[in-house]
Amino acid sequence: IIMDEKEEDKAINERLLSGSLLTETQEKTLELSEDDWQRILSGARVLSCNKNDVIIKEGTTRDCIFQMTKGRCRIMKNKGGTPFFLERNSIFGEISFMEGGVASASVIADEDNTSVNIIEG
Fold first, then answer.
1. At 6, is the secondary structure helix, strand, or coil?
2. Is 72 helix (H, G, I), strand (E, B) or coil?
3. CB contact at 8 A, 96 and 61
4. I need a labelling partner for 56 at 20 to 30 A (CA). Which of 6, 93, 115, 120 fits?
5. 83 Cβ partners below 8 Å, 6+ apart?
């Protein structure tokens, strides 16, 4: 199946909002050993957030991946809709990082004292 860019973006957004893309990504992360994670996170910066702090703004580009280590975040599209919630150890921002594109949704801290590792590439 050949999709144009708009159709591909729509498919990615649907998978993102349904949680299936995140689940696929999280399943792949389970293949990393504890030593692998320690090496990856050794150079990470820690971001401490309060409720409603914007971590990623929809439409922006980032050269990093995020891992939430404490608290909870919500994924929101500018056009509205039902938010999707991320829990502890969730990875996000990997799609725009790997594809060199823009963030397809905003990620916002949903609790005070939310901590996020920023893994820069």
1. helix
2. coil
3. yes
4. 6
5. 74, 75, 76
Report how far residue 110's alpha carbon sits from residue 86's, in angstroms, rounded to the nearest whole number.
9
C-alpha to C-alpha distance for 47 and 115, rounded to whole angstroms: 6
pLDDT digits (tens, 9 = 90+) for 68-115: 999 999 999 887 778 889 988 888 988 888 888 899 899 999 999 999
C-beta separation of 95 from 12 below 8 A: yes
Residue 63 gets which letter from DSSP? S
Q: In 3D, which of 115, 59, 48, 57 has the Cα closest to residue 86?
A: 115
Residue 89 · residue 22 · CB < 8 Å: no
Place of tokens 């590792």: 117
Q: Cα(24)–Cα(54) distance, rounded to whole angstroms?
A: 24
CA 1, 6, 104, 77 dihedral sign is negative
CA distance 57 to 102: 9
In whole angstroms, what is the distance from residue 16 CA to residue 91 CA?
Answer: 12
